[in-house]
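Problem 3 from the worked examples.
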Amino acid sequence: MGWVIMLVAVSIAIMLIAFLVLRRRGRESEDRGSASVDFSANLALAVYLLVLAYAAVLCRDGLSVTETDVKAEAETLTEMYWSVAPIPEAAPVRSQIRRYTAETIHLDWPLMARGEVSPVATKTLEDLRSATIRLRPVGEESKTLQQDALTRASEVSHARTIRSSDASAGLESIFVISMILSGLLVIALPWTLGVKPTPASMFADLVRVAVVVIGVCFIILISHPFSGLGAVKPDALRTAEQHYDQIDSQFPSQP
C-alpha cells in the first residue's frame, strides 16, 4: 500500500510541475513534429498495455495457485484428523492438529503478508509429527491408521513449505519497472512538444496519467497472494476446524 500512495503522489507532482512549466514557457499549439511524437506515445502505450495485461494474468494465476495450495493443506489436515480419530491413544494428536490449524490462521496469516511464517506454528507442526510417531496403537487397524496419519503429517509439512514459498514470492520487479517506464513515456512524450496547455489538452493529460497510475497501482495491489486486493484468506482452514467438530461427534475423544 505504501508503494501505491507514493506512486500516486509522485505522479500528481510530476503532472502539476509539467502544467506549470508549460503554462509559463510553452508556445502556442502548432504542428512541429507532433506526428512522430504521437507515434512514439502510441508505441509506448502499446508496450505499457502489453506488460500490464501479462502482469495481470501472472498475478491472477498466482492467486489461483496459492488458493488451491491452501485448500489442499486444509484437506490434508482434515484427512489426518480422520486417520487419528479412531485411535483411542491419539487424543493429544487431535489437540495438536487443532492447535496447528488455529496458529496457522491467527499467527501465520498476518505474517505472510510480509513474506514470513510463524516459528510458533512451525514448532507445533514438528511436535505434531513427533507425537504421531510416538503413538503406540493396539491392533493392525490402528497401526494402519497411524501410518496414514504419518503420511498426512508429511504432506502437511510439504504444504507448509509451499505456502511459505508462496508468501515470499511476488511479481517480478521487471514487470513493475517496465510498466512505470513505458507509462512515463505515455504521459511525458506529448509534453516534449512544449505546447501551452489548453482545457482539452489538460483533460487528455489527466486521462493518460489516470490510466497509467490506476494500471500500475492495480498490479501492485494484486501482486502478492496474501495481501492487497484478492488476498487469499484462511477460509479453508476455518472450514477444516468445523470438520474437526463433526469428526469428534462421531469419534469422541478419550483422555
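Problem 4, a separate protein:
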Amino acid sequence: MRKVVLDAVVHGVSPGDVFENVASWERYQELAPHAESVVVHRGRPEPTGSSSWELHFRSGLLQWSEDERFLTDQLRIEFEQTEGDFDVFTGTWTLSLDGGNPADTAVRFVCDFDFGIPSLEGILDPIAERVIKETVAWAIAGMHEKVTFGGGLDLTPTNVGGAEAAVPATA
C-alpha cells in the first residue's frame, strides 16, 4: 500500500473557505495539468458526493470513480474509490487553523492506494504518487493567492500529457 501525504498552509483564508474551495472538484481540470477530466456527479453543498477522475499517467490515463463524505463541521473530506484502476484508493482532506497564524489554514491531504499488482508496484506506485500529489498541489495553489507547501514537495517541472508543466511555486 502506497501513502501520499501533502501538507500545505493557505495564508489569509479561513478553514471554511478553503474547505469549500478544495471540495470544488470541477475546478481541478482547469487548474491541474495532470487532470484530463473531472466529472462531478454529486457535490457540495450535499453531505455526500460522487465524482469520476482521469489523470495523465505515464502514456495513458489513470481512471477512477469515488464517493466522498463532506464532514463540514469537522473540516474533513473522506473519499473512497467505487470503481477504477486501483485495487484500493481511499483518503482524507483535513483542514484546521494553522497554529503559527490564526488567519491561515493548515491543509493535509492523505491517500492510500494499491494497484494490486505487486510485481509492478516499484514502477507504477512512485509515478502515481507524484501525479496525485502534483494534482492536489496545482489545485490548492490555483485556488488561493498564497500557499506554502511542506513535506518535501518536489517543485521541478514535469511532463504532463506530452507537454512540460511546472508544479506550482511555493509562496
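Solution to problem 4. The CA atoms of residues 5 and 165 lie 21 Å apart. Strands lie at 2-10, 35-42, 48-57, 60-71, 76-84, 88-98, 101-114, 147-149, 158-160, 163-165.
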